Amino acid sequence: MPNMNGIETFEHMNEMELDIPVIFLTASGDEDDVLNAICLGAVNYLKKHMCYRNC
């Protein structure tokens, strides 16, 4: 996303008190990102599998 990442978007949603279940789907498996998303209230955090050859 050009202006903010998913965590920042989710923070804005929380500030607006939107009660929408959020599941993060990302190629990043950074533990800090996972913990941050879950602590903010994400329902789940899923990591995409990367395929580096023709699948």
Quaternary arrangement of the chains shown? single chain
Helix content range of the residues, please?
A: 25-40%
Overall strand count: 2
Number of helical runs?
Answer: 2
Low-confidence stretches: none
Helix/strand class: alpha+beta
Care to describe what's here?
The protein has 55 residues and is of the alpha+beta class. The protein has one domain. Helix content is 36%, strand content 15%. The protein is built from two helices and two strands, in the order αβαβ. It has helices spanning 6-15, 31-40, and strands at 23-26, 44-47. The protein has a two-stranded parallel ribbon with strand order 1-2. Helix 2 (31-40) links the parallel strand 1 (23-26) and strand 2 (44-47). It is elongated, with a radius of gyration of 13 Å.
Notable traits:
2 strands; 55 residues; 2 helices; two-stranded parallel sheet; alpha+beta
